[in-house]
Amino acid sequence: MIRYDLSTALSFLEAHDLEAVRPRAEAAHRMLLERTGPGHEMLGWRDLLLQPDDALLEDIDTTAAEIREQADVFLCLGIGGSYLGARAVIEALAPQFRSPVEAETERPRLPEVLFAGHHLSGRYLKELLAYLEGKSVYVNVISKSGTTLETMLAFRVLRPWLEARFPDAARRIIVTTDPARGRLHDMAETFGYRRYAIPPGVGGRFSVLTPVGLLPIAVAGIDIRSLFYGAVEMCERLTDASDNPALDYAALRYLFHERGYAIELLAVFEPRLSGIGAWWQQLFGESEGKAGKGLYPDAIQYSTDLHSLGQYVQEGRRHLIETFLMVEREPEPLTIPDTGDDRDGLAYLAGRTVQEVNRKAYEGTRKAHADGGAPVSTVWLERLAPGPLGACLYFFMHAVAISGYLLEVNPFDQPGVEAYKREMYRLLGKP
Length: 431
Ligand SMILES: O=P(O)(O)OC[C@H]1O[C@](O)(CO)[C@@H](O)[C@@H]1O
What we know:
By secondary structure, the protein is α/β, with parallel strands linked by helices. The chain folds into two domains: 2-36 and 228-406, Rossmann fold (3-Layer(aba) Sandwich), CATH 3.40.50.10490; 45-222, 3-Layer(aba) Sandwich (Rossmann fold), CATH 3.40.50.10490. It has helices at 7-10, 17-34, 44-50, 54-70, 84-93, 122-132, 149-165, 169-172, 183-191, 211-219, 224-237, 245-258, 274-288, 310-315, 354-371, 386-406, 418-428; strands at 2-5, 73-77, 112-116, 137-142, 173-177, 194-197, 263-268, 296-301, 320-329, 376-383. The strands form two sheets. Strands 1-10-9-7-8 form a five-stranded mixed sheet. The longest helix is centred in the last third of the chain and has 21 residues, at 386-406. 41% of the residues are buried. Bound molecules: 6-O-phosphono-beta-D-fructofuranose (F6P). Pathway: Carbohydrate biosynthesis; gluconeogenesis; Carbohydrate degradation; glycolysis; D-glyceraldehyde 3-phosphate and glycerone phosphate from D-glucose: step 2/4.
């Protein structure tokens, strides 16, 4: 389901470099599998795939079916790992343009899945409340700690709004949080909200395959079982150190990190994958960026950004590597019309497909950027569907764990994110 092509990047290294780093990468891989590395108590994201809880998937599907039936809007409140995974998968797989009914089935349309609590814009919340007026709204508050300001502040605004409009407000609020503690947990207990647990051994950025991601994804009408089992399959495949694309990816990144490269671009040519890029940014940024180490992760969307950042990538400071995230099989090609003239200068494309043009844009970009001095490699996704996407999510989680161990950091903590919070709370006069 996932293929990793690093052939072009290898030309930036000495012939034996990859082989030389392999024993270290394999040792890091073993630390992950054998739970001997720092942060090993936070490997719950693997455990839940090694022992799938089908009853939980069933339960989430049942809740999602009720919400799909009742809601016009499913509003997810969360930030960082508590929304990026859900948003990424929904953007990748749900229809990009909405219609009043699903064309073929004549069924009423799916609820709109919206996000809030992922920043502190009062303006956004005000406009959101105005938009929600008159609609049937369900709210999913997602926070592992149950204390994150952005999320909890949005909930404080939404809760009275819901209570004032819906006699069954308590049933419309679903809380996803720590199973035993925290303010959100306690509120759910007090007010009788439905509750889903984030296992204690799963950090926010690794939580997409828990109810954090699965409930919103299921509400969006996506097959969570296929997504989940795609990840299970990839998890099983990556236990073997030989022919292991995650290990190769981690080893390659490490080699360039050690050679002074500072930035990794994750470039997509399919806008639907931009959300995966945003999710990947948090995954790699929070896991690696500590002790003065790590590649700065930057997600970029082509060909859009070739017209803004392309100049820098081609000729700017040579301190970046580029990883393309591509889809192998594209369904429903769109044929470029033959208009019978060449007024727009595009007659040479008539009869070919837009997909082919996009593929050539990728091939051309890969060559140009490599020629310009950027080591490039490509992660290939078999197709845009729940199974391969689940495999892709696991691929990156496995890779970042190996990568963190190669850098000799704990890939599962994020002590640095507290610094701004301390300053902000001091300014706000938090008791
Ligand atoms: O789920 P929580 O506890 O609200 O945290 C949200 C996000 O905030 C962070 O803790 C960073 O502040 C992330 O690691 C996490 O994904």
